[in-house]
Amino acid sequence: MESGKTYGKIQFVDNRGDTSVAITRPTISPVNLLGVKLTVAKINAAFDDPGYWDNGDALEKCGPLLHELGHVLRDLGFKGGDFQQNDDDNAVNLHNSSLIRDNCLK
Fold first, then answer.
1. For every residue of 28-65, which 3-state class applies, written as one string?
2. Angstrom distance (rounded) from CA 101 to CA 94
3. Contact by Cβ (8 Å): 71, 92
4. Which of 18-22, 25-29, 46-50, 97-101 has the highest mean pLDDT?
5. Per-residue pLDDT tens digits for 56-65
6. Does pLDDT of 52 surpass 80?
7. How far apart are CA 79 and CA 65, in angstroms?
8. Are 57 and 25 in contact (CB under 8 A)?
9. Residues facing 42 on adjacent strands
């Protein structure tokens, strides 16, 4: 997925000043006109920023990556589980992160 060929791409970007660790969305592409087929997950790699992804140990870094991959799966049509796609609301975002932590990082 990192190279951006089959399902989209993961980018590590310098979003200095943005408190978000990451964001995932469908790509703006003619391929997506008949349904989402490509997504982009952008991970905030701005060193020493409040939303900096690499601000912890390996286990802490896995959480945001798995969280964003949950959004990728939803974008691509996956329907199972309790993960919610629209987590702009902080309570929903925390719910999604708790699902990842409780089911994937123990």
1. CCHHHHHCCCCEEEEEECCCCCCCCCCCCCHHHHHHHH
2. 10
3. no
4. 97-101
5. 677 778 888 8
6. no
7. 19
8. no
9. 11, 23
Q: How far is CA 66 from the centre of its chain?
A: 7
8-state DSSP, 17:
T
Matching residue, tokens 């990728």? 72
Measure the CA–CA gap between 89 and 91, rounded to whole angstroms: 6
Q: Which residue has the tokens 């699902």?
A: 99
C-alpha to C-alpha distance for 106 and 75, rounded to whole angstroms = 26
For residues 96 and 83, the answer to whether their CB atoms sit within 8 Å is yes
The larger pLDDT score, comparing residue 25 to residue 36, is at 25
Q: Are 69 and 78 in contact (CB under 8 A)?
A: no
**Going by C-beta distance under 8 Å and a sequence separation of 6 or more, which residues neighbour residue 88?**
none
Q: How confident is the model at residue 102 (pLDDT cuts 50, 70, 90)?
A: very high
Please say if the pLDDT value at position 100 is more than 70: yes
pTM flag (> 0.70) = yes
